[in-house]
Write a structure and sequence with these properties.
heterodimer, A: alpha/beta, six-stranded antiparallel beta sheet, five-stranded parallel beta sheet, 10 helices, globular, disordered N terminus, B: mainly alpha, two-stranded parallel sheet
């Protein structure tokens, strides 16, 4: 049945305030820039958050305690935020899991410094207490479901951050379930939240904490899990770590038909080296029109899209006019004109001079 | 001054030297460029607020004149150094939505969408190719012997004066292709479709300068009306003069479609240099032209932030000298005199032979 309905009209006054006839008096960008020039926390764009404390977790990992503006929607343990920073004139975005449970206003992100990564490197060297970062609203559905089954949490490296938030919340709520918490890292010196974890394990009988040091015991994989927890498929399981680990665990649970008990989250895949990538074709998903096409790395994305019957806007086809410019949501492309590789999320690319270097998501 | 002909090998080397220069500057983009464009945005707003306030609240002739020039400067900065350059995508690498080429809407009756098509694509890819580059004479002026002469061409100094006064309108209606419509070569309804976004934008632009701000001034309505009209006139005359110096100076070359067919990027670079001309002046002068005074560098590298052209110019000039390519650069008055001379000269039915193929 079709119901004819009119969209509710917003208040006459606020509509008037946004009217194009009043431009430039009601230009939101100009007012935002004026307000944030007076006080960066007054910005109306995104959610500014002030850095309250910076804690060294390990030699390459820091926790940033942040106070977001009051209108920031409270998060759920396990969710992540997109942090936007400006590095050398460029606005860059990166997702970080929130490492603190929701507790009235103050949130933490824990950032491991990745070699060569611009955002985490900048966060480690440039951010000071009192600075203002920009956050998105919290997002993601990684977390614990209610139920009676015991919990199995497995993380590797910096994958511990969302699990730490979840574990802290379970502890605060005095959750009655039994919890096995397995964390893998290279050496004791690389253990993030070590003191807090051991403290929790000492005072909380429900928690069975196991730390796996891969430098001594070898890489942690699905076999290590099955060897330690024989009836793993009975647990409600949360996994967070590099893609290789989460894929391995996914396969394990599928092989015993227990995939419904598993939730996993992984870091995004690496960029393929150019030599290995140039012979490949990659799937491209157009997010706004839900179309799919395959892009061979030998032809431009514009040609590939046209060969698949799409008609993206275009002009000069030589990388000059930017008519074909669009937003790449995820994945890596190489600009053939400049040789530049773009692998950050939400970067602008020119279809006519770009080739795919990984599976892509585009908004045309 | 004739066009330089380079061998295929020379063209290839010529291209790689210019490519290398571009890559060097592109790799260096950063904080300095971001700070520059944000400062110009702030300055333009400050000039606009100052100019409009002086016109609105002042009552003496001195504040009127200062107000008019402040507002004209705001409009010139917004159109030339911010709008034109942002629309070229020079600051897209910053990832700042307020400085993004696909989202920016500039303060002029021409819509950004029209401009991206007629200017960024048609003019910048087909620079000075007769029949493809509509900016060559704007379908109104005969600037070279290869263009058709009719008796109306005799009066082109008059047409030019009108165009200079109403330059923003001339640019805005360019994409309507009125020429095709007059000749009855446009399907019915297409003109209306093409004109709709322009009419919408023109209406709100007119409303702002000739209704909203005058009304806000209550007793000062006539003063604000007159002041806004004067600021718009100054902007039109200035931008017109600068833009005409870009491609219509005495030494700027034209191309036929055949000459440009199948050209390599090296040949494309060469055509951009042959077809463009620079103006020399102080840093303040360059800023007020939106760095279109470095028209040659702008046409070679339209998506490099314009303030960088000043650093690139000596290097481009050096590359041109090495390959024996004429680098057309002189002071404003000398170049503009060349433009006016050309408008007068080709008003007469002279040089009516097709461009050499």
């Amino acid at each position: 049945m079709q119901i004819a309905h009119t969209t509710p009209r917003s208040l006459g006054f606020s509509r008037l305030l946004r009217s194009p006839w009043l431009r430039p008096l009601n230009d939101p960008t100009a007012w935002d820039q004026l307000l944030s020039a007076i006080n960066p926390m007054w910005s109306t764009r995104d959610f500014p958050a002030r850095v309250l404390r910076i804690i060294d977790e390990t030699s390459d990992t820091k926790t940033f305690e942040l106070q977001p503006v009051r209108r920031w929607p409270t998060h759920q343990a396990g969710q992540h935020v997109v942090v936007e920073v400006e590095v050398n004139g460029r606005r860059l975005q990166r997702s970080f899991s929130l490492s603190s449970p929701p507790n009235g206003g103050i949130v933490s992100i824990t950032v491991k410094r990745q070699p060569g990564a611009r955002v985490s490197g900048w966060m480690h060297t440039q951010v000071r207490v009192g600075d203002v970062l920009r956050l998105s609203a919290p997002a993601g559905d990684f977390g614990v479901a209610p139920g009676a089954a015991p919990l199995l949490m497995l993380s590797a490296g910096s994958g511990i951050t969302p699990l730490m938030a979840i574990l802290s919340e379970l502890h605060a709520q005095r959750d009655p379930r039994a919890i096995v918490f397995i964390h893998a890292c290279r050496r004791p010196a690389d253990l993030i939240f070590g003191a807090r974890l051991f403290e929790l394990a000492k005072q909380w009988p429900n928690l069975d904490l196991r730390v796996h040091y891969s430098a001594q015991q070898g890489r942690f994989n699905a076999l290590s899990l099955a060897a330690q927890i024989v009836d793993f498929h009975r647990y409600q399981t949360l996994v967070c770590g590099p893609r290789a680990l989460t894929d391995d665990i996914d396969n394990l649970y599928q092989s015993v038909a227990a995939a419904q008990n598993l939730r996993s989250e992984s870091y995004s895949g690496r960029v393929l080296p150019r030599s290995a990538a140039s012979a490949l074709s990659h799937p491209v998903r157009v997010t706004n029109t839900k179309q799919l096409f395959t892009a061979s790395a030998r032809i431009s994305l514009l040609e590939a899209a046209e060969a698949a019957g799409l008609q993206p806007a275009h002009g000069c086809r030589i990388g000059i006019c930017k008519t074909c410019q669009c937003t790449k949501r995820s994945g890596s492309v190489e600009n053939l004109r400049t040789g530049e590789i773009s692998s950050e999320p939400n970067e602008l690319i020119q279809l006519c001079v770009s080739v795919a270097r990984s599976p892509l998501e585009l908004t045309l | 001054m004739a066009k330089t002909t380079l061998t295929a090998l020379q063209l290839e080397q010529f291209q790689s030297e210019l490519d290398a220069l571009r890559a060097e500057v592109a790799a260096d983009l950063g904080e300095r460029d971001a700070t520059h464009i944000r400062k110009v945005v702030r300055d333009a707003r400050l000039y606009a607020v100052t100019g409009r306030s002086l016109l609105m609240f002042g009552f003496d002739p001195i504040s009127f004149v200062v107000g008019v020039f402040a507002l004209a400067k705001a409009k010139i900065l917004e159109n030339m150094e911010i709008g034109h350059n942002v629309l070229h995508g020079q600051y897209d690498w910053m990832n700042d939505p307020s400085l993004n080429s696909q989202r920016y809407e500039w303060d002029i009756v021409c819509t950004s969408t029209h401009w991206r098509r007629t200017h960024n694509f048609e003019h910048h890819s087909h620079t000075n190719i007769l029949g493809l580059d509509d900016d060559y004479g704007y379908g109104l002026l005969r600037m070279t012997g290869a263009q058709k002469w009719t008796w109306r061409t005799l009066f082109q100094p008059i047409w030019y004066s009108i165009l200079a006064i109403y330059f923003q309108w001339g640019v805005a209606i360019q994409d309507l292709k009125l020429g095709r419509w007059f000749k009855g070569r446009m399907p019915k309804g297409e003109l209306g479709q093409r004109a709709a976004p322009f009419i919408k934008k023109a209406r709100s632009q007119m409303f702002k300068d000739y209704v909203l701000f005058p009304l806000l001034a209550f007793w000062n309505i006539p003063r604000v009306l007159l002041g806004n009209a004067a600021a718009n006139l100054i902007r039109s005359l200035w931008t017109n003069a600068i833009i005409f110096c870009g491609h219509f100076t005495s030494d700027a070359q034209v191309y036929s479609k055949a000459e440009a067919a199948g050209e390599s990027r090296g040949a494309w670079y060469l055509r951009q240099i042959h077809g463009s001309s620079n103006l020399e002046g102080s840093r303040r002068f360059h800023l007020l032209t939106g760095h279109l005074s470095h028209q040659i560098e702008h046409h070679l590298f339209p998506d490099i932030p314009a303030p960088r052209y000043a650093d690139m110019a000596p290097r481009v000039r050096e590359i041109c000298r090495k390959y024996g390519v004429h680098y057309n650069s002189a002071g404003f008055w000398q170049q503009y005199a060349g433009v006016l001379w050309r408008i007068g000269k080709y008003a007469l039915p002279i040089g009516r032979r097709p461009a050499r193929a």
